[in-house]
Amino acid sequence: MASTDARGPGAAGPDVLVVGGGIIGLAVAWRTAQRGMRVTVLDPDPGRGANHVAAGMLAPVTELQYGEEPLLRLGIASNERYADFVAELTEASGQDVGYRRCGTLAVALDADDRAELREVHAFQRRLGLETEWLNGRECRRLEPMLAPDVRGGTLVGGDHQVDPRRLGAALVEACRRGGVTLHRSRAAELLTEHGRAVGVLAEDGATLRADATVVAAGSWSGVLPGLSPEARPPVRPVKGQVLRLRMETVRGPLPTPFLSRNLRAVVRGCHLYLVPRENGELVVGATMEEQGFDTTVTAGGVYELLRDARELLPGITELPLVETNAGLRPGTPDNAPLLGPTDLPGLVAATGHHRNGVLLTPVTGDAIADFLTTGRLPSEAAPFTPSRFAPQHPEFAR
């Protein structure tokens, strides 16, 4: 049975309906409610979207890829406001979200990896980013459990981490305390009248009408029934399998943490990351698979992650494996999010964050809340409107 956490009997309909209660949708709802608007979130299980699988790296610099400079700037803007965002969210919810200023070490295992990482480091430096080159010995001094084969690496002190599961739970509570209505059902169909989005029909039979409807349904944003082809977000699911292990302190004259900061590498062409939490959890991920909406954990996926992780940290094979998951990243043609108005009046996009959903949560919440209350997107979000994929747009024609 669907349920609604509402304001009370006789409450008026919302100004804004957010379809999707992952961390993006919840951040949009929380920030919009703070600006005085009535907000409803439609989701059967708020706080448990792709964030339940995500590792939670806040890594705009080490996530950087060639040609993604605008996305880098958006990521840096979001990362810079994360500490204040977390402090405010903790106060609003009464819950800690596991935010750590730990930095990221990206390492190379062989000569080819080292040459590639050197090129990336030079690219980062040309963009004015703070990143330090280390030789293999310096890398192992920082992380003694690294394999002897590590040839070098880059240290990025500005990359951090957060626990996405705790982040989702805190956003649910902040929304609840902030007056946001949580309608626990799925969207069955987008409702339109006279060429304008006016709300959603929910699977439980409820009709939810609103002045503005925000699509924040992650990988499912593009398959909402009722969306016209021109308004349909170009979002697809990108599967990622993730492991969770339990770390132990390495015994010796001086107890040593198994891993103390985010670790990244490319192993035989496969990107790998490891994220250690203060509670002893170690997250290892993630595969990149174009398998539609399949979320099956496979023996091959688990094997590949453990095999590559063992190349970096040989001792990882001694750690308990406590959980395996597969989630769906909402990918777009250019790997960047969709933020702002769509071609359908009344319909706003907050989706397509691909591998950067956790990182971009603060900036997305602020940007969409600003648009909903003022009709304007802030400058950092302007390059990411859905209109960039319209056939007549210059970016589309390239």
Helical amount: 25-40%
Rough outline: globular
The SSE order reads EEHEEHHEHEHEEHEEEEEEEEEHEEEHH
Which regions contain 5 or more consecutive residues with pLDDT less than 50?
6-11, 393-398
Task: Give the strand order of the largest sheet, numbering strands 1, 2, ... along the chain.
Answer: 6-7-5-15-16-17-14-18
Structural class of the secondary structure composition? alpha+beta
Say what oligomer this is. Answer: single chain
Mean pLDDT: 92
Largest sheet: 8 strands, mixed
Q: In total, how many beta strands?
A: 20
Indicate the proportion of strand residues: 25-35%
Estimated radius of gyration: 21 Å
**Number of helical segments with 4 or more residues:** 9
Q: How far apart lie the N and C ends? A: 49 Å
Overall description:
- β10 (about 185-195) and β11 (about 195-200) form a beta hairpin.
- The chain is an alpha+beta fold and about 400 residues long.
- Helices cover about 25% and strands about 25% of the residues.
- It has helices spanning about 25-35, 70-80, 80-95, 110-125, 135-140, 165-175, 300-310, 360-375, 395, and strands spanning about 5, 15-20, 40, 55-60, 105-110, 130-135, 150-155, 160, 180-185, 185-195, 195-200, 205-210, 210-215, 235-245, 260-265, 270-275, 280-285, 320-330, 340, 345-350.
